[in-house]
Amino acid sequence: MEQLVFTVRRQEAKLVVPAKLTPRVHLPLSDIDDQEGLRFHIPIIKFYGGSHFQSDKDPVKVIREALSEALVFYYPFAGRLREELPGRKLIVDCTGELGILFIEADADVTLKELGVPLQPPFPYLEDLLHDVPGSDGILGCPLLLIQVTRLTCGGFVVACRFNHTMCDGTGLAQFLTAAGELARGRQAPFVPPVWERKLLSARDPPRVTFTHHEFDELVEVPIEDLDHRSFFFGSDEVMALRQLVFDQDQLGRSCTSFELMTACIWRCRTIALGLEPNEDVRVHFVVNARKKYKPHLPTGYYGNASAFPAALTTAGMLCTQPLGYALKLVIEAKEVVTEEYMRSMTDLMVLRGRPPYMGAHSFFISDVRHVGFVDVDFGWGKACYTGLTSSCARALPSQVMRLFNFFVCGKNDKDEDGALLLLSLPPTSMKLFEDEMQRLLKHGYHILSTLQT
Hints:
With 453 residues, the chain is an alpha+beta fold. Helix content is 27%, strand content 24%. The strands form four sheets. Strands 1, 2, 4, 7, 8, 9 and 16 form a seven-stranded mixed sheet that branches. Strands 10, 11, 14, 15, 17, 18 and 19 form a seven-stranded mixed sheet that branches. Strands 3-6-5 form a three-stranded antiparallel sheet, with no helix packed on it. The protein is globular and about 60 Å long.
């Protein structure tokens, strides 16, 4: 496929500050926020089509002003992080004078030319989200970088990079939703932001009451050159996978699509990597814990509030047992997350000096389809695509590389809605993964067709 070539004209990055005076305070992050495994920046991207209702409005101006107004309510985003010793506790320094980085840009390309359907990875990402030199550190750097790029068709792209210690996907979506509401004329966000990071801070005295395999200290495996791909799972694909586990303890009927897809991908990925049968393998996934607490965390809480439980087995068991075996492990691992589990994980951060998570042959996957990104509307309607830009490998401050894979909302070439898996693997393993996944799906389709005849 011929690579798309277009030109982007960027203005110099400028700070967007709160539209009104905000408190000058120092705010500690929670012990969940400032763990080692979240000390990195992560990009998202949103593609919007033009609208004749808004043809006289400039999306750059509208969004920049809305962000400034939103920062009045979410003023910690305009601050900077610093680290207190001992303990490496992160504090947000809110001076009221700083802000988030904003880039205005124009591209001589249409939305249609960028891809139909829009599916990651996006080879032109660096054009739509400029990496401002010196802006991607954890301490003393802007917590948000946003580039709005106008397209020649009247559409535009909003690309954003955020410091994960400040919020999770749900928290960022809440902030962007608020900016969208203000852009459309509201005087204040529909959901007021709640800081209250002390709710997720360690107990006194801290005590670990669960086994947290996500923080096991394992021998690291070097990460090779990676191939980045996206795979579509629509209703047909999910139903085909469901057929494979219908007769195994009724799991096929009771499990969620996320659990089913994760079990399938974990198994196919392990087969593709060709690991020794006795090697330990694990899958980690994000569990939103906001409703695990009693009472629930306040509506509007935008800090990190997730756990990363792990399902464990050996490569031999995972690859030779039916899909239902992997599915059962995934379901059981998700169910372990309770309020006490979260309290135990929080205390572990303090007792063990904020260790990084995951080790050798760990597969990390996060489902961001339901965090709220798809609902962000700046006045031009919902985005054509919204979510992560690709799966990614990140070097954490410990210099350990971690792979992050995602489910996002997307479409296939038939314009059908579904889930896109954003996956990274070595090139040789990627082909084996695709072959194994197609084999599983073909088997499921066969069972389904047999039942229908």
